[in-house]
Amino acid sequence: MLFPFGSQDTLATITSIGYALFIFINAVQMDLSMVTRTGHKAWTIAVMGLATPLLVCLLLPHYLVKSIDGKANESFPSVVLSHTVTSFAVIASLLNELKILNSELGRLALSSVLVSDILGTTIGCIFNVAKYSNKFIDVIKLGMPLLAFVIFVPLILRPLMFWIIKHTKEERPVDDGYIYAIIVLVFGLGWISVRMNQEFILGAFVLGLAVPEGPPLGSALVKKLQFFGTSVFLPIFVTCGVMKADLSLPKTPTAIFTTGGAIFITHMIKIIAYLIPSLICKIPLKDALALAFILNAKGVVDVGTFSGSYDGKLFRDEAYGVMIVSIIIIACLVKWSVKILYDPSRKYAGYQKRNIMSLKPDAELRLLACIHKQYNISAITDAIDICSPTTEQPIIVDALHLIELVGRTSPIFISHRLQKADSCSHKSYSDDVILALDLYEHENYGAVTTHAYTAISPPALMHEDVCQLALDKVASIVILPFHIRWTVDGGVESDDKNIRSLNCKVLEVSPCTVGILVTRSLLQNNSSIKLAVIYLGGRDDREALCLAKRAIRNPKINLVVYHLTVEQNVPSLEYLLDNEALEELQKLPQCGSENVHYQKVIVNDGPGTSSVLRDIANEHDFFIVGRTHESDLPQIEGLKDWSEYSELGVIGDLLASPDFESRAGVLVVQQQVKDR
């Protein structure tokens, strides 16, 4: 009643616009240069996974399908080819849903599927040329225009796209006239594709590859077309495609079993074909199996492909119904299997100690500093100054500039030390960061060494880049800027929820100590710094104290340790470790360290702690505090209920509270979590 006979085809034709725009958007977000930059590992996996099922399955009908009628046998090659080809858009969407887009496995999957998609599209075009050619002259007539189309569209239109970017003012959006002209081109090239007996979406795909990914043009096109194409028309197109499926049982179910068997055999061979080269490349078995499942995924693009093939009479009704159902089954199995097999955070739970306490007194400190905006740089350098770098105990700073991924699918990670100045188009993203770090290194020559990196990835997955770099560089501490920035008068200037989410995720999975830096005013150079540690006990407080001990090597830093304790403590292992750390500190003034002071403060409840912190909040320029404490400590009783930002812990949250009207910076420290 809702969809009378004939209405489905009309609706499907209209909503095919959404499908074409979806293919175009995903092609725009592809980085075609990855095909040339992809290593032999991705190429081997892609070629093996594409060629093996085609060669094996296309030989099977002669031996396994002799008893089946001719029509069912004719559709067998089309079924195999349709399930062999893997779409970049489907895999990218799956990886994004699983939140492993910029994990090591996700990057390898994206590289492999990009190669596979390009090769699969090429095979599909050749298949169409062969299908409509009875003589060799027909191959020439259809093949030459197709070759010219694929070569000249990027050759002519890509420089035109760069011309548009060049004539777009910096920090200004691309003119809407250019956007609409490109959208018209999408449909114009689609019409030309159909005239060459190819799929309509071929024109959208080729033009999308010609558009430079990322801002300003790529991101503008994605933003303009995302809602209309992907959110409105595409779901209706998929619904129309699925409505064509006849799921009633036929009188002779042979075709169903034949099609189902072909799909099952094809995917089993694909899994083996992806698994073998992955294991040869020394990928762990579980990860290799997860990669094989990912590269077998099916989704929206496959619905469009199967629907078009069905309209072209390549499938019978029963076969089409089975293929539509197979998409649903495969999509569910792949998602569940990958979630079970692959946990990207487990690689961070190493057995190596990576914290400040484990360092020898004269050892260099490796520090990973995260930067979102240019104003973060001064705050980060202040935190490095607090660590008192010297030529005898230097600090190696790996600075990671985090940028939100917009207008592209593939995340980017750039090492600016390895980068050639004349070959990277992305260097401008981090120019200010690199320059500031170079100046800071020059000012602290011999004491500080800086390395700059840029990570362009989705906000939900940025923690992967942070933790992976910390793991690779054997960092002892990661410093993250707090998500709120205050104005001079104490008002909130910016509040970025994505940064807060990133900080919380890094705290959960970081392979080393984490410090969250709250900044409200910058430290004054060439003047003494009043530093304070609030010490209640526990491993995070001991880590904070250890960091403060490094600070007092600078005679301009005056340290006060406030030991908040109850009148009577119950002896325990933690109590003994806390006392040992404090005894070492109390010996420092006797050894000539006059810039260290220790104050023991008796506090029996949470309000008492809050009162003490309020009294000293304006007496110091900088605080270092531990994040977590035992939940039954009397000193913090009741304070957790009033805590607004859990990532700062109870003490850090109080010191960062606007109620205290303090301008002091706060570094909240969480020691490496090894018992995840």
Question: Would you kindly provide a written description of the structure presented here, covering whatever features stand out?
Answer:
- With 676 residues, the protein is of the alpha/beta class.
- The chain has 23 helices and 13 strands.
- Strands 3-4-2-1-5-8-13-12-9-10-11 form an 11-stranded mixed beta sheet, with helices on both faces.
- The protein is elongated.
- About 3% of the residues have low confidence.
- InterPro entries: Cation/H_exchanger_TM, CHX17_2nd, CPA2_transporter, Na+/solute_symporter_sf.
- It is a multi-pass membrane protein.
- It is found in: Membrane.
- Belongs to the monovalent cation:proton antiporter 2 (CPA2) transporter (TC 2.A.37) family. CHX (TC 2.A.37.4) subfamily.
Q: Report the average pLDDT across residues.
A: 80
Task: List how many beta strands DSSP finds.
Answer: 13
CATH architecture of the largest domain: Up-down Bundle
Shape: elongated
The whole-angstrom Rg is 31 Å
Q: Give the CATH level 1 class of the largest domain.
A: Mainly Alpha
Looking across the biggest beta sheet, what order are the strands in? 3-4-2-1-5-8-13-12-9-10-11
Which fold name corresponds to the CATH topology of the largest domain?
Na+/H+ antiporter like fold
**Would you tell me the structural class of the helices and strands?**
alpha/beta
Give the helix proportion (percent range): 40-55%
Give start-end ranges of low-pLDDT stretches.
Answer: 62-72, 419-427
Strand content: 5-15%
